[in-house]
Amino acid sequence: xxxxxxxxxxxxxxxxxxxxxxxxxxxxPDAEFSDEVFVGLRHAGVTSMxxxxxxxxxxLQLTFRDVQADDRTGRAHWDAHYxxxxxxxxVINRIDAxxxxxxxxxxxxxxxxxFYAWSRQAIGPMGLLLGWTPLLKNKVRSQARGTLDKxxxxxGVQGP
Length: 160
Description:
Elements (H helix, E strand, L loop, with lengths): L2 H14 L3 H5 L2 E8 L6 E2 H14 L4 E9 L3 E12 L4 E14 L2 E8 L2 H8 L2 H6 L3 H21 L6
Parallel strand pairs: 1-6
Antiparallel strand pairs: 1-2, 3-4, 4-5, 5-6
């Protein structure tokens, strides 16, 4: 197995255990992360996001597959089953991840998922009606970023 494939496997195995510190250790100090909700996070934000999700994801169940990597890039697919805290609704989020590596660590990480499918599950009727609009996506992004900023402040983490 390529070392970067092992890194991805270790990353998602840590997520399955809800071990945010082990996930954080997989990232390069110059790491960047984006998905449909969290956009443009830098290292402190990336590692804090995973720690926060691990701490709060009490019923999170995660599976991953199709891990592939070479010296420069990698990819994987993962599915997250959890209860969305804001509404108490069950969600199955299907995510495709892309990675770039430097010095044996994750430098860039981009997760892609169907925001409309997610919003229908997580938010319900409002997600069904407005999940395809930038209005709802921007509102969810703003709320998620506010939650992450609060988490970082509570844990004494500095940075974007």
